[in-house]
Amino acid sequence: MAGLPLGDVVALFVRVFDQLRIDGYFHEAFGFVCVDTGQIDGKVRDVELEMLLSIRKNGLWPIHDEHRHYSEDDFFDIVEFLYQHVSKPIDGTYHSWNECGMHWETFNKVQGQAEYLKKVNAVLNHYAEQFELAASGEVLHKPEVGFEQIFDADIPSKDANVTSRLDAAVLRYRRHGSTLDDRRQAVRDLADVLEYLRPKVKSLLTSDDEKDLFNLANNFGIRHHNDHHKTAYDLSLWLSWMFYFYLSTIHVVLRKQQQSSK
Question: What is the pLDDT of residues 209-223, one digit of tens each?
Fold first, then answer.
C-alpha cells in the first residue's frame, strides 16, 4: 500500500488535534474559551512566541490557518511541539451556563503524552513515508525491517563514553530532516564508539576481521578525508548499511563484555 501524501496526512492530523483540544488535552497549556469570561489563558500565553523560541519558526500557528502550507519538517516540528504541551484532563468543574462545558483544573502530562503518541502514530502510519513519534518526543525515521528491536533494547553499558555517544548517533541518524552529512556523522560516531571498545573487539574477532571492521570507516570517506578514499558508491545506501552494521556490532560487543564480567 503506497500511503497518503503529506497534505492528506496533515489534514488527518488536524482532525485528531481538534478532537484532543475539544476533550481538554491542550487546556492546561493553551487555555480555552469560556462563554462568560472569554479566553482563559493557559501556561503558554503566547503560542507563536513559544514556537519561535523553541523551534525557531514563524507562521505555523494557528494550525487551522497555516497547516495547508506546512512542509514535512514544519509538520513534524508541530507534532513535536504539541507533544511537549499536551496533558490529559483529570478533574475540574462543569460550567453549565449555555453549555460551556468542563473547566479542567488538574492534568496528567504523562498520560496525555501517551494518548497523544498513540493517536499521532496512527496518523503517521497512513503516510507514504516511514516515520514515527517516539516516546522521547522526536519524530524519527522508522527502523529498517528486521532492526526494530535494536532500538528498543537497553544499551548494556554504564559507561557514558558509550551510552551518550550511542544515543546521540542514533538520534542524529533517525531524526526527521537528517541530511547525508548528519548520517555520515552518525556513522562516524558509531565508529568512534567501536574504536573506544577496540581492545574488547580484538578479543572477539580475528586480526583480519578486526582490521576490516575499521577499514570500512577509514577508507570509505567516513572518518578521514583524503584522495585515496573510495567514493564511487551510493552514499545513502552505504551509510544505511554501515549504520546498522556498526550499531549491531556494538550491541554484540557490549553484551559479550557483560557476559564475560559475570
Answer: 556 666 666 555 555
Contact 166, 193 (CB under 8 A): yes
Q: Counting every residue, how long is the chain?
A: 262
Which candidate, 209, 207, 204, 206, places its Cα nearest to that of 255?
204
Indicate whether 183 and 58 sit together in one domain: no
Rounded to two decimals, the pTM is: 0.85
Listed residues 140, 160, 179: the one ending a domain = 140
Q: Which of residues 118, 140, 162 is at a domain's end?
A: 140
Residues of the domain holding 111: 6-140
Q: Is the dihedral of CA 233, 237, 241, 243 positive or negative?
A: positive
Helix %, strand %, coil % for the chain, to 5? 55, 10, 30
Distance CA 255, CA 200 (A): 11
pLDDT tens for 98-113 read: 878 889 999 999 999 9
Q: How many domains does the chain have?
A: 2
